[in-house]
UniProtKB/TrEMBL annotation:
The keyword Amino-acid biosynthesis applies. This is Homoserine kinase. It catalyses: L-homoserine + ATP = O-phospho-L-homoserine + ADP + H(+). GO terms for molecular function: kinase activity. It comes from Salinicola rhizosphaerae. Keywords: Amino-acid biosynthesis, ATP-binding, Kinase, Nucleotide-binding, Threonine biosynthesis, Transferase. It holds the Pfam family APH.
Length: 315
């Protein structure tokens, strides 16, 4: 369960009095997630999502609030946080930081079709276009500097081939990105399929911005392609790849440096998740009793990006 701090109906009913959202009708814990406690809340005025933050850098929460407010104001399909009667979004409940959001419509797409891929590419392109003007700032916690530092902690747990691969890849990234300035802005940082909601082919919402930061827009796009356009064997599906990127570049065309470094960024984001999952298993066990994700998926993706041709980028 992803309810690490249980709440009673009475606690939530009292909490809702701070907002203009109506009176509590039902409360249900959400049985998925890995870090925070999440609840579905129903009132006579609608459906809401209540999140209690259990771990992480709590001082970063104002960044997430400001980013979601900004994107919501620009008509992106994100859950803009609900502000209380005094105009404050970030609250405390049961000793934890808390946010209340509108519940976005739809379900996670396990096998996205081409229309869903195009909708995601369109929304991400629009998001990256406006996010370059967002004034907030939070350093990317999983950037190249992080890879250089943290990979040393897992080398002892790898066989000789994987150890050599990881070291060679990071050295290659360091050389490739040296002195290069790529377009930057606010990014989602973790835009996997399970962080989106669809009603049929319509994108109902992009959720879970808690890896959001200020970073290279290409980093965000590469994370999306590695998840959304990869088949079970790790190969890129050319049709899904083209649907996402074709819709994306209509809003934000890629510059010459981004095009040159595209295949490198696909590899780097695959290694980023390979490393983060290795760290959870061997170095930083989760704070709660949950099953860590298997690193093998991203080791497979990295191998595919190294050994298989990357489809061309749209003009």
């Amino acid at each position: 369960m992803a309810v690490f701090t249980p709440l009673s109906d009475a606690q939530v009913a009292e909490f809702l009095e701070r907002f203009n959202v109506g009176n509590l009708r039902s409360l249900k814990g959400v049985p998925h997630g890995t870090e925070n406690s999440t609840f579905f809340v129903t009132t006579e005025r609608g459906e809401w999502v209540l999140t209690l933050f259990e771990q992480g850098e709590f001082e970063d929460l104002p960044f997430f609030v400001d980013l979601l407010d900004y994107l919501d104001a620009h008509d992106l399909p994100v859950p803009g946080p609900i502000h209380d009667r005094q105009g404050v979004a970030l609250q405390r409940l049961a000793g934890r930081p808390a946010l209340l959001f509108p519940r976005m419509p739809g379900a996670h797409p396990s096998a996205p079709n081409l229309a869903q891929c195009a909708a995601l590419g369109d929304a991400l392109g629009r998001m990256h276009l406006v996010s370059q003007r967002f004034q907030g700032s939070r350093a990317n916690p999983r950037d190249l500097d992080w890879l250089n530092r943290r990979h040393l902690e897992v080398l002892a747990f790898l066989d000789d081939a994987d150890r050599a691969l990881m070291q060679a890849e990071i050295a290659d990234y360091t050389l490739a990105f040296e002195g290069i300035s790529l377009p930057r802005g606010a990014i989602h940082g973790d835009l996997f399929r399970d962080n989106t909601l669809y009603e049929g082919d319509r994108l109902g919402g992009i959720i879970d911005f808690y890896n959001g930061c200020t970073g290279e827009l290409l980093f965000d796009l590469a994370i999306v392609i590695n998840d959304w356009a990869s088949d079970e064997d790790g190969k890129l599906n050319a049709e899904r790849y083209s649907a996402i990127l074709g819709a994306y570049v209509k809003h934000r065309p890629l510059d010459a440096y981004e095009r040159r470094l595209w295949s490198t960024m696909l590899r780097m984001t695959a290694l980023r998740y390979w490393l983060s999952r290795l760290l959870v298993i061997h170095v930083d066990p989760p704070a709660h009793d949950i099953t860590p994700h298997d690193p093998a998926r991203f080791r497979l993706l990295l191998g595919r990006r190294l050994n298989a041709e990357i489809p061309p980028l749209p003009a």
